[in-house]
Structures are given as structure tokens and as C-alpha cells.
């Protein structure tokens, strides 16, 4: 029995070492990059797996269209990065192959299509999710997910902590023996302060009056307790903004409560609760396929669709009918993030017209509807008609 404990303790010691190093790195962190101070902004385009390359290509075309002048003047450049596929990742046995990581690091912002996450029973070995790895490698600590349903009074922005919690050691749990397995959840002061500050800063800059902290601090007392505590301390720096705290279970219920849910504005929450709650929230807006997601760090930022890679659509020859609207929305978030607010608003507006009010074309995912390319053309025509 002692041997089992010693072996497990050694493993745990290595995890602590790693996390202490990560904290040291966070302490050295510089401030947010300023895009207007750069000579050239490099936008990486990463297709990913399955329907990813098809839909990402459509979003790329729209960004090229909107940034034509900037590209001509040399203010913006696109860099297409092809190698983030499950086949390449399996070959390298890495969540992100080294050469791809190197290319990603040459960019300032990245638009990323869905990537396959192997799970038990899949034909692939169990390598880590490319999403999760990219968030860690590029230190993209704030996962910002907006959800809006104007006619129901829903206007929410989620600030999901993106680099720690149950995810940071998600591939590093271990079986102590045949009977016991452990996973770990990690909350750090630095990691929580920066996500809390991002949420409150956003609230302050956007005229929001309330930030809601969601945890399960009544049961997961240490890590969630720390998260809640730190958020409440940061709140003191923002006297005009009210802070309230909810547990994740009742919060999932309250999002369905039509009287209550319109009162929420900005949410800040640990990684796993953020993962779950944002899928629920996106459902009110029309499903995860309609939502975009921003992964923001101080040096890099990555924008992605929040749906999967739909390998079945590719097998059935339907990739060209895949709906590119979620990755296009992510493209709009990217534009806003690097300072092209007006272009971002135009793109958002065109998306609303094409998907909700006018609907001259509808993407159904099958040959009963438009192709992604036709939809992207429709978006660009609509943008032109806005000028
Ligand atoms: C998301 C996804 C990812 C996550 C998966 C693909 C690893 O569900 O972006 O929400 O859990 O973060
Ligand atoms: Mg998710």
C-alpha cells in the first residue's frame, strides 16, 4: 500500500511543480498587446478538421473582402495554417504539432475552425483537445461568449475562465490503482484575478450594471470558494457595478426562467461551468451552431465556432453545405477585437439580415439548401448594399 501512495504522491508532486511554474509565468505577464501600435496585424486562418476547412474558407473570403484596403496597404496580412488536422496531430502524437504551434505564434489573432477531440472508443489515440491545448499554449485565458435574443430580452456575455479549473490537468489525472482514479481542479490567484478583471472591465466599458459569479462554492469549497472570493474582491474596484453570486445548478435553471433571466448581463465563471452554461445559453439563440467564441489572452487571441467538426457531413459529401455562420460570427468578433469596429458591426448586421430578416438563401446542411459559398456571397452582397 505504501508503494501505491508513494507513486501517486510523486505524480502529484510533478503536477504541483508544473502549476507553480505556470503561476510564475503569469506573474511575469505583460499587459495587453495594442493592435493600433503594430506595423502589421497578422491574422492566422486555421481550417481544422471535418467541415472546418470548408466553413473557415468562407469566413476567410469575407474577411479578405472587408479588409481589402488594409491588406493592400500592408496593415493586415493573412496567414493560412493547414496542419492542424487530426491526422497530423496523431502522427506527431501532440495536441498541436510543433511546426503548427510555431506558425500560430507568428500570428497576432487566429480564426480557427473546429478540430476533432478524440474520446474513448474513437479510432484515434487519446491526445488532448487542440482547442484546450491552444488555449493553454497561447495563454488565452478569457473565453468570451455573447448570447443575444433581442425579442426575449436576452443580452448576455459570458466570461469563462479558459486556462485552469478542471481543464488544466484534464489529461493529467491518474489511476492510483485499479480501484481509484483522481482528476484535479486548479484555481490560482493570478488566473482568477485576470478573468474577473476582464469581466468587470467589459461591464464598466459597456454600461453593464451587474456581474454574476457562478460557482459551486457550497460544495467545491476550496477552488470554487477561492474563485468566488477573488471575484468579490475585484468587484470592490468597480463600485458602480453590482455583483451577485449563484451556484451552477440553480443558474442552469434560472436561464430558463423568463422573468429572471433578463436581469443577467455579464457572467464570470470557472472553466467547466462556463463550458456547460454557454451551450445552454446558445441554445436560446438557435443552438451552438449560431454562436461565436473569442479566446483572449494578452499577446494572442483566437476566435472560433463553438460547434464540432461534423465528420459525418464530410463522409456523406455534404461539407460544402455546412453552415459557416458561426465561424463568420467569430470573424466579426475578431474584427472588433483588433479595432475594426465598424466593419465588425457591418458584418454582424449582414448576418442578421441574411439569417433572420431577409433570408433569401437558407443553409440547411444538405442539398436542399444553399452552399456555404453561396451564403458567404450573399453576406458580401448584403454588406455592399449597406454602404
Ligand atoms: C468548447 C468545447 C471544448 C471545451 C471541447 C471541444 C474540448 O466544448 O469550446 O466549449 O470543452 O472547451
Ligand atoms: Mg463546450
Give structural notes:
With 387 residues, the protein is α/β, with parallel strands linked by helices. The chain has a domain at 31-140 and 297-386: 3-Layer(aba) Sandwich (Isopropylmalate Dehydrogenase), CATH 3.40.718.10. It is 45% helix and 16% strand. The chain contains 15 helices and twelve strands. The protein has helices spanning 2-28, 52-66, 68-72, 86-92, 98-105, 130-137, 189-205, 223-235, 248-254, 258-261, 271-285, 311-315, 325-337, 341-357, 372-386, and strands at residues 41-46, 76-81, 109-112, 142-149, 154-161, 174-175, 181-182, 210-215, 242-247, 266-269, 292-296, 301-305. The strands form two sheets. The chain has a ten-stranded mixed sheet with strand order 2-1-3-12-11-4-5-10-8-9, with helices on both faces. Helix 2 (52-66) runs parallel beside helix 15 and helix 7 runs parallel beside helix 8 (223-235). The longest helix is centred in the N-terminal third of the chain and has 27 residues, at 2-28. The radius of gyration is 21 Å and the shape is globular. The N and C termini lie far apart (74 Å). The model has no long low-confidence stretch (mean pLDDT 95). The structure holds 3-isopropylmalic acid and magnesium ion. Magnesium ion is lined by residues 275, 279.
Amino acid at each position: 500500500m505504501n508503494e501505491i501512495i508513494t507513486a501517486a504522491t510523486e505524480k502529484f508532486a510533478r503536477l504541483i511543480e508544473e502549476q507553480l511554474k505556470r503561476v510564475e509565468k503569469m506573474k511575469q505577464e505583460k499587459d495587453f498587446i495594442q493592435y493600433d501600435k503594430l506595423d502589421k496585424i497578422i491574422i492566422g486562418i486555421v481550417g481544422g478538421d471535418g467541415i472546418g476547412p470548408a466553413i473557415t474558407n468562407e469566413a476567410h473570403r469575407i474577411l479578405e473582402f472587408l479588409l481589402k484596403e488594409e491588406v493592400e496597404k500592408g496593415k493586415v496580412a493573412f496567414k493560412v495554417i493547414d496542419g492542424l488536422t487530426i491526422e497530423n496531430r496523431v502522427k506527431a502524437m501532440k495536441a498541436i504539432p510543433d511546426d503548427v504551434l510555431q506558425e500560430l505564434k507568428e500570428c497576432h489573432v487566429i480564426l480557427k475552425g473546429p478540430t476533432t477531440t478524440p474520446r474513448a472508443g474513437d479510432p484515434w489515440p487519446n491526445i488532448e483537445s487542440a482547442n484546450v491545448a491552444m488555449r493553454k499554449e497561447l495563454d488565452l485565458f478569457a473565453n468570451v461568449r455573447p448570447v443575444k435574443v433581442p425579442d426575449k430580452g436576452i443580452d448576455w456575455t459570458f466570461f469563462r475562465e479558459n486556462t485552469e479549473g478542471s481543464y488544466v490537468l484534464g489529461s493529467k489525472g491518474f489511476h492510483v490503482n485499479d480501484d481509484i482514479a483522481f482528476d484535479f481542479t486548479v484555481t490560482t490567484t493570478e488566473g482568477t484575478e485576470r478573468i474577473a478583471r476582464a469581466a468587470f472591465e467589459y461591464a464598466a466599458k459597456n454600461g453593464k450594471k451587474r456581474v454574476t459569479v457562478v460557482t459551486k462554492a457550497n460544495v467545491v469549497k476550496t477552488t470554487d470558494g477561492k474563485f468566488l472570493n477573488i471575484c468579490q474582491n475585484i468587484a470592490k474596484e468597480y463600485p458602480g457595478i453590482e455583483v451577485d453570486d449563484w451556484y451552477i445548478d440553480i443558474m442552469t435553471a434560472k436561464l430558463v426562467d423568463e422573468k429572471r433571466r433578463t436581469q443577467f448581463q455579464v457572467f464570470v465563471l470557472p472553466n467547466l461551468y462556463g463550458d456547460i452554461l454557454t451551450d445552454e445559453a446558445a441554445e436560446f439563440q438557435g443552438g451552438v451552431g449560431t454562436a461565436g467564441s473569442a479566446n483572449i489572452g494578452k499577446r494572442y487571441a483566437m476566435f472560433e465556432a463553438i460547434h464540432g467538426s461534423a465528420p459525418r457531413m464530410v463522409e456523406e459529401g455534404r461539407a460544402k453545405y455546412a453552415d459557416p455562420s458561426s465561424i463568420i460570427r467569430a470573424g466579426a468578433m475578431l474584427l472588433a477585437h483588433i479595432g475594426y469596429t465598424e466593419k465588425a458591426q457591418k458584418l454582424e448586421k449582414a448576418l442578421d439580415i441574411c439569417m433572420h430578416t431577409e433570408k433569401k438563401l437558407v443553409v440547411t446542411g444538405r442539398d436542399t439548401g444553399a452552399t456555404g459559398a453561396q451564403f458567404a456571397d450573399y453576406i458580401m452582397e448584403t454588406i455592399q448594399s449597406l454602404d
